[in-house]
Design a protein that fits this description.
The protein has 1 helix and 12 strands, in the order H-E-E-E-E-E-E-E-E-E-E-E-E. With about 190 residues, the chain is mainly beta.
Length: about 190
């Protein structure tokens, strides 16, 4: 073997060893907290337009798998919505709602202190009490800044499609979509 082939072979082996070392997959556990700065939407019932707006805190965790910067897994988020007073057909829907969401996420950690992800929450339920609740699903796009050790400063844009509204014995399709802006922090731990 001549010297040029030996150098190329050594470089190839060295590169494969480095790639194998960095290609190791890990379990991702990421607790997160945030605050919904602004959520708003509108719907029409009986030819009358109604505006919805709410805000509130949230917390949850992601559990997933991470390899070569790619990440994917499950997300659970709990939040408290303070819905502004909204009266539709004589019924007041204002007040505090507890909201639980379960979904899946995929994302990527860039080497330049940024990370991005998308999530689909297939189960979203905001409940005021057992006879007054909203159900639907949520799409989320997020961007995190990871310059601080162990922390990610996050900004998320969420679109929530509320497909069912139950109040008392009455269930309606509210055709309500709300847009949310959420800021928060998370602690992405790779084990």
């Amino acid at each position: 073997m001549n010297m040029n082939k030996k150098t190329k072979l050594t470089g190839l082996i060295f590169g494969l060893v480095l790639m194998a070392n960095t290609a190791s997959a890990s379990l991702l556990i990421e607790p997160h907290v945030g605050y919904n700065l602004n959520a708003s939407g509108n719907t029409t019932e009986n030819s009358v337009a109604h505006e919805y707006s709410y805000k509130g805190g949230e917390y949850g965790a992601r559990l997933g798998y991470q390899v070569l910067g790619f990440m994917a897994g499950l997300d659970y988020t709990h939040s408290s919505m303070s819905l502004d007073d909204v009266t539709v057909s004589g019924t007041n829907y204002g007040g505090s709602y507890d909201r639980n969401e379960v979904g899946i996420f995929v994302g990527y950690n860039l080497p330049i202190l940024l990370r991005g992800w998308g999530a689909y929450y297939f189960k979203s339920k905001a409940e005021k009490d057992s006879s007054n609740y909203f159900k639907g699903n949520t799409f989320e796009l997020g961007l995190g800044f990871t310059a601080l050790p162990f922390l990610s400063l996050n900004a998320m844009y969420r679109i929530v499609s509320w497909s069912q509204h139950q109040y008392g014995a009455t269930s309606v399709d509210p055709s309500l979509t709300t847009n949310e802006i959420v800021i928060g922090v998370s602690l992405p731990l790779n084990i």
